[in-house]
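Give me C-alpha cells for this 225-residue protein.
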Amino acid sequence: MRILLVEDDALLGDAIQTGLQQDMQATIDWARDTATARISLAPGHEYQAVLLDIGLPDASGLQVLSHLRDRYDATPVLIVTARDQVSERIAGLDAGADDYVVKPFQLDELSARLRAVIRRSQQAVTPQLQIRDIVIEPARRQVYRAGRLVSLSEHEYRTLLALLESRGRTLAREHLEDAVYGNHGTIESNTVAVYIHQLRRKLGNDLIQTVHGSGYRIDVLGNGD
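Here you go.
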C-alpha cells in the first residue's frame, strides 16, 4: 500500500509518516507543499489514499483536491487540518474529500479512518460509460474502441467525458471549456474545436455532432455531420 502525506509541519509530518508505516505497513511518501503534491499525483500515480493538510505554505490544500477531482481521479482523500469550523469541514467535503480529521488527533484514529476510506473506495463500483463500441472506464481513466485501448490526451479525455455524460443534450463551447479547463484563464477560441477534431479522428467521424450555432453533442444514432 502506498499513501501520499501532504503536510508542511516537520514534526507532525515525521510522526505521521513513522506511525503509519509501522501501523499500516504502508509506504508513506511525504510532500510538504501543493506543488510537490500535484507532481506526485500526476495521472497514473499509484497511491491508494492521500492525507491532505489544508493550510500549506504555497496554496490551500483544497487546490490539490480540486486538481484530482477535476480530472475524475477518485483516489480517497482524508483531510487532516487544524481548522475545525463547520464551514471548513463542509468546504472540504463539498470539494470531494472522503473524510475529515481535526488536529490534534490520536494516531490510531487516523489509521482507522484511513483504512475505512480505502476500504470504501475498493468496494465502490465505478460504472462504465458506453456508447456503441466505445467504452470509458472512469476509475482507470481509460478509453476503448472495439476493445482496443485508445490513447487520449488529458484535455481530449475531459472533452469526451463531458459530452458522453451529457448525451442527448447539446453542450455549448463555453460549457465544454469549463469542463476541460475550469477557471484557469483564457484559451484560444478554436481550442475545443481542435479537441473535437482529434476525438473524431480517434473514435470515429460520426461520434460527435456539431449543432451549428449551439455547440456539440454525442450523436447517439450515428448520424454525425
